[in-house]
């Protein structure tokens, strides 16, 4: 784990591959673990953190420099015991978000063929897996979800669609996710949900937060 000031009001923490592998974790688990450790430290009285933004391999910690100057925060990190924990100590993310999903996506048959199973099997596999929210991306309310167990991957579409409907549930690579608004996209679409992923009247506006567990629940149209 390496940390360095990022401007005059933030610190960027890079997760070390070797440390994560030694602990039996993915790099993303390492990011989420440190994110949780810092939230725990805030509960114990650590001041000056304004916000935190997890990414695939890094954690950006935004600070109030009047309370927590970036260089002071970097120097203080060792005392916060942010080392990547052993697997058994990783946060279990008991807060589970359930996403009712109608599995009627246009790529359901394609994914079934790629995996060598039936469309019903794809539905059972996707809805039977527990997913972990890794980080947000590309649009407000879009969260990249990783499977908590072994799960087959799918390629992106060769040609992205110009319009993906809001609420579309898709997969690309190892990730699953829900499109929070209509937008272009190249993910394989398995179904859709009526849940709002982004709502500015909600606190926080994003339905799914990094570190939470997510289950897709089969819903009949």
Automatic annotation (TrEMBL):
ATP-binding as UniProt keyword: yes
ATP-binding as UniProt keyword: yes
Pfam entry (one): CT_C_D
Keywords in alphabetical order: ATP-binding, Hydrolase, Nucleotide-binding
Gene3D superfamilies: 3.30.1360.40, Cyclophilin-like
Domain Carboxyltransferase per the UniProt entry, residue ranges: 1-208
Listed PANTHER family: 5-OXOPROLINASE SUBUNIT B
Protein's UniProt name: Carboxyltransferase domain-containing protein
Organism of provenance: Corynebacterium glucuronolyticum ATCC 51866
